[in-house]
Design a protein that fits this description.
Helices cover 30% and strands 44% of the residues. It has helices at 2-33, 37-41, and strands spanning 47-57, 62-65, 70-80, 84-91, 97-104, 109-120. By secondary structure, the chain is of the alpha+beta class. The strands form 2 sheets. It has a 3-stranded antiparallel beta sheet with strand order 1-6-3, with no helix packed on it. A 3-stranded antiparallel beta sheet has the order 2-5-4, with no helix packed on it. The chain is elongated. It has 2 domains: 1-34; 37-120. A hairpin with a 5-residue loop joins strand 4 and strand 5.
Length: 122
Amino acid sequence: MRRGYAATTAVLALGAVVGIGIAAQEEGAAAAAKPTSAQRAAFDGYQLVKLPNANVPAFTRRTVWCPNGKRAIGGGGEAQGNGAILVGSFPTNDGRGWIALGRQDGHNTVGISVYAVCANAT
């Protein structure tokens, strides 16, 4: 009986540590998503560019472009709708923008938004 108690205590302790780690990751991700003015200043010409949500045929690439003279240093996309899945999110071949595409279970269209984090090219 004592052995079972020790095993249960170990599992609960592990669960608490994992839970704390997940919470820390979520807090870190939230902080990374909202850069401070000091972080923005580290990137000359920092600018967030958004292509708002639009319904497009499944697997259609939507691309947002950085303004002239800037390059995408990051980006992402969002698939919207019941059963919507973001299938891809990646930079353009020339590095001047960001691409996102998705699909939606049971539908021929999906809502896709695309974001690019842009900075001056050097």
